Amino acid sequence: MPIGQQRVDNEADISPRFVFIRILALFFRSFEKPVESVKFREQRLAKPLVMLYKKLMEKPKDDRFCFVCGPENELGLRLDFVLRKDVSQAELVFPAHLCGWQDIVHGGIIATVLDEAMAKAALSRDWHCLTAEMSVKFKIPCRSGQPYTLRGAITATRGRLVMAQSELLDRKNKTVASASGKLCKI
Hints:
- The strands form two sheets. The chain has a six-stranded antiparallel sheet, with helices on one face. A two-stranded antiparallel ribbon has the order 3-4.
- Helices cover 29% and strands 31% of the residues.
- It is of the alpha+beta class and 186 residues long.
- It folds into two domains: 47 residues, no CATH class; 104 residues, Hotdog Thioesterase (Thiol Ester Dehydrase, Chain A, Roll), CATH 3.10.129.10.
């Protein structure tokens, strides 16, 4: 089968290398010039394309400025996660400036910390992941100025996909909000 025409049977088979080769194949197929000119273009474009590929394959660097856990971010939450195999946990109190309504923490902020808990659970296995899909359920209002426990856990893996869950618990151990998601290893 020619390069760029491979079938993908499941989403875990899609690697950055596969995507890169597919883009290259489509790029060179778009020209209707003779093969010699394609060979010339291939030689001329090879170096920039290889540099682009290497840039895409680099692991992200931690600049310690994450909104949720970055110690350098003065406006962030600066959460300190405890990591064990497949599990993450942090204690937090939401400041009043993150409220949507009076004393009720904005749902987007809650979703953000739930996402971070899942990513940190993956990091407990030294997997750097990006969230591909996430579903959040809000159960009861989350109030600013009160202590909460944030937990994340890996539930399954399949190739480059990591399935995870997280929850935000109040001091009575009642679930305030929960999330499930699919993360992609990078």
